[in-house]
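Project standup — Tuesday

K.O.: blocked on the structure for the chain from last sprint. Re-posting the sequence here as requested.
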Amino acid sequence: MLRSPPPCFGLLCAAAACASSPSAGPSSHPASHPASHPGSGPHQGAFHHSFEDAEKWAGVFDDPARAAWQKPDDVVALLGLVPGQTVADLGAGTGYFMSRLSNAVGPDGTVLALDPELNMVRYMEKRARREGLENVEARRISTDDPGLPTGRTHVVLIVDTWHHIGRRGAYAEKLAAGLAPGGAVFIVDFTLDSPEGPPREHRLTASQVAQELSQGGLEATILEEELPRQYVVKGTLKGGAEP
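H.V.: unblocked you, prediction finished:
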């Protein structure tokens, strides 16, 4: 157990914080955002932000206006989930996707709602009870390890979060180890010109994300989608069959 809560990298930060400011744009962000912390290799730095106040961030992350650009139903549809599967929402924050994922995998499936911020995990536990999501398990993870059981997770969803992770090539390797045969990782993050998102210098292109997944031993594909301000990159085990 960590002695102090690490910075949360879930459902992130400048995305929501900038969206709440009418004058904010790609180069406009709250002065409270700390500088990035270097990782290893190109494009491996992490952009950190504190999310200890879960109640405050719930009002931002769950703002109904978010649906217009996040398109959560479209995102979940891209995952191709079937009943009985295990899906991990990594950097789940306040649980924005929990109910949709829960419905997609059904009562025989499992949703792992993962976040490094303890207060976010507690918030998601309460939310799951309030919404009757009995197949949801909210768990705290470290910032450098997704904590997935080896070879058992069918789908990993990482939304608005990848740019907050350091040493992403090594992290992708840990994600690969957690995938079940035929499993996949889906990374949804901000385009360079999105009005939401972190400062431009901390953003990644879809090609950069694909390269980082490849460093972890995954075959990466940039998906065709209709998200107005984001891209989706899918990583699968090399040589693995689709589920």
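K.O.: great, moving the ticket to review. Strands lie at 86-90, 110-115, 136-140, 153-159, 179-190, 218-222, 230-237. The first strand starts at residue 86 and ends at 90.
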